[in-house]
């Protein structure tokens, strides 16, 4: 099992809603990633975190929720009874009830695209590069590198601007 | 089934993103991301929401499929192509014989270089320089302002230079929203440690990423920039060597900005004095600096001066002629730069040769084999005024929508009513089409091929991916047929005999020095395109302009000293608010394209007027309430959004849905651009019924046209 994670870096989001747009397209008009704006106007894209100890999976009375080989938490619509216990348990309020399907749906980390060897659409398309997809160590590496640069930058900025651009 | 991947250029903004259309026998199956082409402006094939929805407007149900002739206003009968072309050519020839200056031609920044070259050639061969396009409404000030200071009106650098800059000054430009994919270069620079300074009357998405944010009142840009220059000169932070060797007019500049102390500027702009000092210091000491701007700077009665000042600011800091530096006016359409380069402007021939200059005129007279007018023609807004005076009687509109896009819509509509003859060449019905006598159905961008020039002077070839619907034909074909029917049947450049866009581009190569080496063969082989100027076929293209000298007569940058002027109309007792227009990331200009895209309309369904909470409370307005924006020119119903992103006393309205009924058509004296970014208005709370009534008076962005039997 190769674990993959889908990580959103909120500090990079420009609120262009491209992620929501492509997800909407791929999932027939029901986007699984949605951009919400806080009262201060800052965009926060909310999607399934594919938790390691997924509360939805634990609480599902029908056993409809499982983890696939990449580590994505998936709902099997045939087993789902639509009790919405997963929504009650989810810390992010992610599961969505689909009236037509009579089942709960949510982000499946673009299972179809992963089967073809491509990344989830939102990660692939984000113009700001705010969505990371990959093995946990790869993603963590990128996030830490960014943080390191931020720390270095703040130290340099305290001295003067001359040194800027000479990093790395 | 013959399935193929066709590389095209996105038909929306000036970033010029590449993508593939997967098509089978001329039918689109979907889009694919161009993540395998190195060196394109959208790294890894990234697209914004509009780019992802490119296929939707092409497949719109109401695409024009047959040439139409008006029976009465707004009612059309179908006619054949030969009939349409014959009629247009004959009418144009009549006007040409009578008085060529009674015709006005509109090129389009939404179509390829080739038809744009042809339409200005047609206008000029018919004897008039009355040819213009929508750059007049967006970057006319940039073209004239940069030409005055540096000698040419184009971005001096590329996206890569934005990425390599140490300090990026974004003014009057909501970069993250207007060019989301291009904004990635700013984010990458910021990741590297670059400082971002944003000046905008609204706290925009771009401002979220600012290290220093300056919130000035709409229309006070001159004071703000003068204030920055004041601090830079006062603290001797400018590049003395660069100023000495490559600029003129510094002393006058220093004298003019003397009184623009941070304290004085604070009073005018509302930006705290210490922030101005901080921004000036940060910008001048960055070592490598880029200034980017867009409509917030240009769409003013002092747009020309705004641009000259920004160019001056960049020059005194020595941020010219080097990598990682420069000025980057961001173009709104994918081919504004190209349409300007190829002379779809009333004052210049292709390659920016002035029509009033006898030498340049002589070259084109010999090249096209006909006599040409040396009189500078009319601009878009001037033409609307000239109709009223009876001077202009015929319009040829290629891919433009002046009813929605021009300032002061009510005046434009009044003028169009008076026209004798109007041809509209477009892909879908627009409100402008209501006034047309002849409608020519054009193929959309993805349905034909040609070259496009993006905002960073990158010329790219876009291939045909889809078959046009019905009898719709490529723009270049339509214009060249009209040219031939009008009697211009000479050989080569002397006539309109072309077998394809390649022929036309070769003719452009021959007469436009900047494009000399940009041949169709080279463009087709190199998908990432070539940056002009490219003087010969073995030239790789130019990334940074002005490395050695500027293009002015003496080779130096002519620094501008400008006194402060506010907007043409300032708030008063009757109209106490300052209105500014904005746009949304998911919509595009007059909605002819995005308005037909279900995915985009779903996410951005309606405009919202932004109003400050204190103003809203005083007027008893809550988010979601209907209000009407009233100015001296008209009324516009819209729902309100109470937010702190705007300053007290400022109202921001998205213009896509026809908000130009209220904007001011006062013109910049040089650039002739209307001031759509600042005017006085009042806000009145209304009921939903009143709003519906008012809505009927605003031209519908997606009109329904009636086709009747002959």
Automatic annotation (TrEMBL), chain A:
SUPFAM superfamilies linked: 4Fe-4S ferredoxins
Protein name: 4Fe-4S cluster-binding protein
4Fe-4S ferredoxin-type domain mapped to chain residues: 4-23, 37-70, 71-100
Any one GO MF annotation of this record: metal ion binding
Keyword list, A-Z: 4Fe-4S, Iron, Iron-sulfur, Metal-binding
Gene3D superfamilies named in the record: 3.30.70.20
Membrane-spanning residues: none
Stored InterPro entries: 4Fe4S_Fe-S-bd, 4Fe4S_Fe_S_CS, ET_IronSulfur_Cluster-Binding
């Amino acid at each position: 099992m190769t674990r993959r994670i889908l990580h959103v870096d909120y500090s990079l989001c420009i609120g262009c809603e491209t992620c929501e747009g492509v997800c909407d397209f791929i999932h027939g008009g029901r986007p699984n990633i949605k951009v919400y704006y806080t009262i201060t106007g800052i965009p926060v894209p909310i999607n399934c975190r594919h938790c390691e100890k997924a509360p939805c999976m634990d609480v599902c009375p029908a056993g409809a929720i499982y983890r696939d080989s990449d580590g994505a938490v998936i709902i099997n619509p045939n087993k789902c009874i639509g009790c919405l216990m997963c929504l009650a348990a989810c810390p992010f309020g992610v599961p969505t009830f689909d009236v037509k399907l009579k089942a709960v749906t949510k982000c499946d980390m673009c299972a179809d695209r992963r089967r073809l060897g491509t990344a989830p659409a939102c990660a692939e398309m984000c113009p700001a590069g705010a969505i990371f997809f990959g093995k946990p160590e790869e993603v963590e590496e990128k996030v830490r590198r960014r943080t390191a640069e931020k720390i270095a930058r703040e130290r340099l900025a305290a001295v003067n601007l001359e040194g800027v651009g000479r990093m790395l | 089934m013959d399935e193929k991947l066709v590389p095209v250029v996105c038909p929306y903004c000036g970033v010029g993103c590449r993508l593939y259309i997967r098509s089978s026998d001329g039918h689109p199956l979907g889009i694919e991301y161009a993540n395998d082409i190195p060196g394109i402006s959208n790294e890894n094939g990234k697209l914004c929401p509009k780019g992802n929805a490119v296929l939707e407007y092409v497949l719109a149900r109401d695409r024009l499929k047959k040439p139409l002739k008006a029976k009465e206003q707004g009612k059309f009968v179908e006619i054949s192509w030969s009939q349409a072309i014959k009629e247009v050519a004959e009418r144009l020839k009549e006007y040409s014989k009578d008085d060529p200056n009674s015709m006005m031609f509109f090129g389009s920044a939404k179509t390829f270089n080739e038809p744009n070259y042809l339409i200005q050639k047609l206008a000029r061969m018919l004897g008039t320089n009355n040819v213009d396009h929508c750059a007049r409404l967006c970057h006319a000030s940039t073209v004239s302002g940069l030409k005055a200071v540096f000698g040419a009106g184009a971005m001096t650098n590329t996206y890569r230079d934005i990425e390599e800059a140490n300090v990026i000054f974004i003014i009057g430009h909501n970069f993250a929203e207007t060019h989301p994919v291009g904004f990635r270069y700013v984010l990458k620079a910021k990741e590297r440690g670059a400082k971002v300074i944003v000046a905008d009357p609204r706290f925009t998405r771009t401002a979220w990423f600012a290290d220093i944010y300056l919130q000035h009142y709409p229309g006070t840009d001159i004071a703000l920039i003068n204030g920055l220059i004041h601090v830079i000169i006062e603290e001797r932070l400018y590049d003395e060597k660069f100023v000495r060797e490559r600029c003129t007019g510094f002393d006058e500049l220093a004298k003019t900005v003397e009184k623009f102390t941070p304290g004085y500027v604070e009073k005018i702009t509302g930006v705290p004095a210490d922030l101005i000092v901080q921004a000036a210091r940060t910008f001048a000491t960055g070592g490598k600096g880029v200034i980017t701007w867009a409509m917030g700077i240009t769409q003013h009665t002092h747009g020309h001066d705004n641009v000259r000042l920004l160019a001056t600011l960049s020059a005194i800091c020595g941020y010219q002629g080097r990598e990682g530096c420069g000025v980057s006016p961001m173009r709104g359409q994918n081919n504004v730069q190209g349409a300007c380069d190829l002379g779809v402007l009333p004052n210049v021939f292709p390659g920016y040769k002035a029509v009033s200059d006898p030498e340049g005129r002589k070259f084109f007279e010999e090249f096209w084999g006909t006599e040409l007018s040396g009189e500078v023609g009319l601009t878009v807004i001037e033409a609307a005024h000239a109709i009223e005076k009876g001077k202009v009687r015929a319009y040829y509109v290629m891919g433009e929508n002046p009813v929605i896009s021009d300032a002061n819509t009510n005046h434009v509509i009044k003028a169009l009513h008076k026209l004798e003859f109007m041809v509209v060449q477009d892909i879908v019905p627009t409100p402008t089409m209501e006034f047309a006598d002849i409608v020519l159905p054009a193929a959309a961008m993805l349905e034909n091929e040609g070259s496009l020039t993006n905002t960073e002077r990158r010329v790219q070839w876009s291939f045909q991916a889809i078959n046009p619907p019905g009898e719709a034909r490529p723009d270049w074909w339509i214009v060249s047929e009209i040219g031939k029917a009008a009697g211009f049947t000479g050989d080569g450049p002397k006539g309109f005999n072309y077998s394809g866009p390649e022929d036309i581009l070769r003719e452009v190569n021959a007469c436009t020095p900047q494009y000399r080496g940009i041949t169709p063969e080279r463009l087709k082989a190199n998908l990432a395109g070539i940056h002009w100027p490219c003087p010969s076929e073995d030239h790789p293209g130019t990334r940074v302009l002005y490395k050695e000298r500027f293009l002015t007569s003496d080779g130096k940058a002519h620094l501008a000293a400008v006194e402060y002027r506010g907007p043409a109309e300032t708030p008063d007792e009757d109209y106490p608010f300052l209105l500014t227009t904005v746009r949304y990331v998911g919509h595009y200009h007059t909605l002819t394209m995005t308005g037909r895209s279900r995915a985009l309309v779903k996410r951005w369904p309606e405009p919202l007027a932004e109003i400050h909470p204190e103003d809203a409370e005083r007027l008893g307005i809550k988010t979601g309430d209907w209000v009407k924006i009233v100015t001296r020119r008209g009324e516009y119903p819209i729902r309100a959004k109470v937010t702190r992103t705007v300053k007290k006393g400022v109202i921001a309205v998205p213009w896509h849905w026809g908000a130009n009924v209220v904007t001011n058509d006062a013109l910049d004296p040089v650039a002739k651009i209307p001031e759509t970014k600042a005017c006085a208005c009042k806000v009145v709370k209304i009921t939903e019924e009143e709003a519906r009534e008012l809505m009927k008076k605003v031209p519908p962005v997606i009109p329904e046209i009636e086709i009747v039997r002959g």
